[in-house]
Each structure stands twice: as structure tokens, then as C-alpha cells.
Fold:
Amino acid sequence: MVSKLLFVCLGNICRSPSAENIMNHLIKQRQLADTIICDSAGTSSYHIGSPPDRRMAAAARQRGINLVGQARQFQPRDFQEFDWILAMDRENYQNILAADPRGEHYHKVKLMCDFSRLYPDKEVPDPYYGGPEGFNYVIDLLMDTCEGLLEFVLAQDRSAK
Ligand code: 4NP
Structure:
């Protein structure tokens, strides 16, 4: 069984590509590449086609993660395509749910920080207008939440068997 995860933020150049690439890093470490597939998207159209933000990529590189990808916008078809849709903050969460007016996919949409183990945050803070410490914090928080999310997905797969 393959689980497909979609990480969503506003621009798809900072938080969600970081989550996608960190998750892929963990998946590779654990040799789970055949069972979990990741992608990311933004709720806005602001940065369509752009690579990950340079400042975000620098923070990720310091933790041994290479950020790759090209921004795209979230689309309603993603509800069919993905098993889990992970919103970085509450605004992203609301905007995703607004694209599903009948609530058919409500159960698939989660806040990323629901999977936090070590951090009290309820949202992944938007680092875009801040300094380098904000980008470093996002990487550390996502390292933790991606670990928690991976355990959740593996447990779901086990119970579905
Ligand atoms: P992201 O960060 O949602 O984590 O990709 C942002 C990127 C761009 C903007 C805001 C946040 N922006 O306003 O252009």
C-alpha cells in the first residue's frame, strides 16, 4: 500500500517544500521510498514555478537537507490524488477546506503541528518576512513534526492491513 502526502503552505517556497524534502529524507533513511510519496503546494499563486526560497534552502542545508522543487498551486484535484493533506498553519487549513465545500475530504486534512512531539507550536510560523532564526526554527520544528507524521502514517498503514 502506498500513502501519498501533500504538504501545503501559502507560497510553496518556504515551509511546505521544507516539509516535503525533510519527509523524503526520513523516508530514504528508513528505506520506505516504495510506500510513501510526498509532494507540496501553495494556496496562493504568488510563486508558481519558483524554486524553494534561498534563505530556507540555506537553513535546510545546515541540517543536511537539500531543498528541491518548483512551486505550484493547490488544486481541488489534489483531494482525489492524496491520502493526507498537511497544512502548515490555520489559514492554509481553512483555505484548503474552502476548496471542499461538501466536506468530503475533511478527514484527510490535518495541521502539521498535530504531529509535533517536542514543540508546543500549533502552527508552523511563516518565516518569509523575518530573519535567519525564523528559517532555522522552521527546519527544526519540521524535523520533529515529520518524525511524528511518519509514525502516524506507518501506524495507519499497519491498521489498514
Ligand atoms: P511559505 O512562505 O508560505 O512558507 O512558502 C511564504 C512565501 C511567500 C510569501 C509569504 C509566505 N509571500 O507573501 O510572497
